[in-house]
Amino acid sequence: MAVRLDDMDRKILAALQEDASQSLDEIARQVGSSKTPVWNRIRRMKEAGVILRTTALLDAEALGLEACFFVLVRTSEHEADWQRRFLDVLRKRPEVMEAHRLAGDIDYILKVRVRNARAYDTFYQALISEVRIYNVTALLSMEEIKSTTMLPLG
Protein backbone atom coordinates (compact mmCIF):
# COMPACT_ATOMS: atom_id res chain seq x y z
CA MET A 1 0.00 0.00 0.00
CA ALA A 2 1.43 3.35 -1.04
CA VAL A 3 2.19 5.91 1.64
CA ARG A 4 0.74 9.39 1.13
CA LEU A 5 3.57 11.87 0.45
CA ASP A 6 3.42 15.60 -0.18
CA ASP A 7 5.76 17.77 -2.27
CA MET A 8 8.05 18.46 0.70
CA ASP A 9 8.42 14.72 1.38
CA ARG A 10 9.30 14.16 -2.29
CA LYS A 11 11.91 16.93 -2.20
CA ILE A 12 13.47 15.41 0.91
CA LEU A 13 13.49 11.95 -0.67
CA ALA A 14 15.07 13.33 -3.86
CA ALA A 15 17.81 14.99 -1.80
CA LEU A 16 18.43 11.76 0.13
CA GLN A 17 18.53 9.69 -3.06
CA GLU A 18 21.07 12.08 -4.54
CA ASP A 19 23.34 11.98 -1.47
CA ALA A 20 22.18 10.52 1.83
CA SER A 21 25.38 11.63 3.56
CA GLN A 22 24.26 15.27 3.47
CA SER A 23 23.64 16.92 6.81
CA LEU A 24 20.12 17.79 7.90
CA ASP A 25 21.07 21.46 7.50
CA GLU A 26 22.04 20.89 3.85
CA ILE A 27 18.84 18.97 3.10
CA ALA A 28 16.70 21.60 4.86
CA ARG A 29 18.38 24.35 2.83
CA GLN A 30 17.76 22.45 -0.42
CA VAL A 31 14.09 21.86 0.28
CA GLY A 32 13.38 25.30 1.78
CA SER A 33 12.65 24.22 5.33
CA SER A 34 14.35 24.07 8.71
CA LYS A 35 16.18 21.15 10.28
CA THR A 36 13.58 19.93 12.80
CA PRO A 37 10.65 19.54 10.36
CA VAL A 38 12.96 17.76 7.89
CA TRP A 39 14.19 15.41 10.63
CA ASN A 40 10.58 14.70 11.69
CA ARG A 41 9.56 13.92 8.10
CA ILE A 42 12.56 11.62 7.58
CA ARG A 43 11.77 9.80 10.84
CA ARG A 44 8.11 9.43 9.80
CA MET A 45 9.10 8.07 6.38
CA LYS A 46 11.47 5.58 8.03
CA GLU A 47 8.73 4.41 10.38
CA ALA A 48 6.31 4.09 7.43
CA GLY A 49 8.82 1.96 5.52
CA VAL A 50 9.36 4.48 2.72
CA ILE A 51 13.04 4.82 3.63
CA LEU A 52 14.37 1.31 4.10
CA ARG A 53 18.02 1.98 4.95
CA THR A 54 20.98 4.22 4.18
CA THR A 55 23.91 2.64 2.36
CA ALA A 56 27.03 3.52 0.36
CA LEU A 57 27.14 2.84 -3.38
CA LEU A 58 30.39 1.19 -4.46
CA ASP A 59 32.02 1.11 -7.89
CA ALA A 60 32.00 -2.56 -8.95
CA GLU A 61 34.75 -2.14 -11.54
CA ALA A 62 37.01 -0.31 -9.09
CA LEU A 63 36.63 -3.35 -6.85
CA GLY A 64 37.57 -5.72 -9.68
CA LEU A 65 34.04 -6.94 -10.36
CA GLU A 66 34.23 -6.21 -14.07
CA ALA A 67 31.74 -8.76 -15.41
CA CYS A 68 27.99 -8.33 -15.13
CA PHE A 69 25.85 -11.27 -16.25
CA PHE A 70 22.10 -11.44 -16.59
CA VAL A 71 21.15 -15.03 -15.93
CA LEU A 72 17.88 -16.39 -17.28
CA VAL A 73 16.64 -19.40 -15.32
CA ARG A 74 13.96 -21.83 -16.45
CA THR A 75 12.78 -24.55 -14.14
CA SER A 76 10.47 -27.50 -14.46
CA GLU A 77 10.09 -27.49 -10.66
CA HIS A 78 7.34 -25.29 -9.24
CA GLU A 79 6.82 -26.85 -5.83
CA ALA A 80 7.11 -24.69 -2.72
CA ASP A 81 10.03 -26.73 -1.37
CA TRP A 82 12.09 -26.25 -4.56
CA GLN A 83 11.33 -22.54 -4.63
CA ARG A 84 12.32 -22.16 -0.96
CA ARG A 85 15.64 -23.94 -1.59
CA PHE A 86 16.30 -21.87 -4.73
CA LEU A 87 15.59 -18.58 -2.94
CA ASP A 88 17.81 -19.62 -0.01
CA VAL A 89 20.66 -20.38 -2.43
CA LEU A 90 20.25 -16.98 -4.12
CA ARG A 91 20.17 -15.08 -0.84
CA LYS A 92 23.42 -16.74 0.27
CA ARG A 93 25.31 -15.88 -2.95
CA PRO A 94 26.89 -12.40 -2.72
CA GLU A 95 27.38 -12.39 -6.50
CA VAL A 96 23.61 -12.14 -7.01
CA MET A 97 22.82 -8.43 -7.01
CA GLU A 98 19.18 -8.83 -8.01
CA ALA A 99 16.75 -11.68 -8.53
CA HIS A 100 13.29 -11.43 -10.04
CA ARG A 101 10.54 -14.00 -10.61
CA LEU A 102 9.03 -13.40 -14.03
CA ALA A 103 5.85 -14.00 -15.97
CA GLY A 104 6.35 -15.69 -19.32
CA ASP A 105 8.77 -18.30 -20.67
CA ILE A 106 11.62 -17.44 -18.29
CA ASP A 107 10.98 -18.15 -14.61
CA TYR A 108 13.72 -16.01 -13.01
CA ILE A 109 16.27 -13.42 -14.01
CA LEU A 110 19.37 -12.76 -11.92
CA LYS A 111 21.85 -9.92 -12.08
CA VAL A 112 25.23 -11.38 -11.16
CA ARG A 113 28.47 -9.39 -10.60
CA VAL A 114 31.77 -11.25 -10.75
CA ARG A 115 35.43 -10.63 -11.65
CA ASN A 116 35.37 -12.47 -14.99
CA ALA A 117 33.93 -15.39 -16.98
CA ARG A 118 35.84 -17.93 -14.89
CA ALA A 119 34.29 -16.51 -11.71
CA TYR A 120 30.88 -16.71 -13.36
CA ASP A 121 31.47 -20.37 -14.16
CA THR A 122 32.36 -21.01 -10.51
CA PHE A 123 29.10 -19.33 -9.50
CA TYR A 124 27.15 -21.33 -12.10
CA GLN A 125 28.65 -24.65 -11.01
CA ALA A 126 27.81 -23.90 -7.37
CA LEU A 127 24.26 -22.90 -8.29
CA ILE A 128 23.45 -26.04 -10.25
CA SER A 129 25.06 -28.24 -7.61
CA GLU A 130 22.74 -26.83 -4.93
CA VAL A 131 19.43 -26.74 -6.77
CA ARG A 132 18.02 -28.50 -9.83
CA ILE A 133 17.48 -26.16 -12.79
CA TYR A 134 16.04 -27.05 -16.19
CA ASN A 135 17.85 -24.40 -18.24
CA VAL A 136 20.23 -21.51 -17.59
CA THR A 137 21.20 -18.85 -20.12
CA ALA A 138 23.86 -16.30 -19.21
CA LEU A 139 24.04 -12.97 -21.02
CA LEU A 140 27.19 -10.88 -20.55
CA SER A 141 26.58 -7.15 -20.35
CA MET A 142 29.02 -5.50 -22.75
CA GLU A 143 28.28 -1.96 -21.54
CA GLU A 144 26.23 -0.51 -18.71
CA ILE A 145 24.27 2.31 -20.32
CA LYS A 146 22.21 3.36 -17.33
CA SER A 147 22.18 2.27 -13.72
CA THR A 148 20.48 4.12 -10.93
CA THR A 149 19.12 3.51 -7.48
CA MET A 150 16.98 6.66 -7.68
CA LEU A 151 13.25 5.98 -7.88
CA PRO A 152 11.03 8.38 -9.87
CA LEU A 153 9.18 10.48 -7.32
CA GLY A 154 6.95 12.53 -9.63
Please write out the topology.
Elements: H1 7-18, H2 24-31, H3 35-47, E1 67-74, H4 80-92, E2 96-101, E3 108-114, H5 117-130, E4 135-140
Antiparallel strand pairs: 1-3, 1-4, 2-3
Helix pairs in contact: 1-2, 2-3
Can you put this structure into words, describing what you see?
The chain has 154 residues and is of the alpha+beta class. It has two domains: 41 residues, Winged helix-like DNA-binding domain superfamily/Winged helix DNA-binding domain (Arc Repressor Mutant, subunit A, Orthogonal Bundle), CATH 1.10.10; 74 residues, Lrp/AsnC effector binding domain/regulation of amino acid metabolism (RAM) domain (Alpha-Beta Plaits, 2-Layer Sandwich), CATH 3.30.70.920. 39% of the residues lie in helices and 18% in strands. It has five helices and four strands; from the N terminus they run H-H-H-E-H-E-E-H-E. The chain has a four-stranded antiparallel beta sheet. Helix 1 crosses helix 2 and helix 2 packs across helix 3. The radius of gyration is 20 Å and the shape is elongated. The two termini are 17 Å apart.
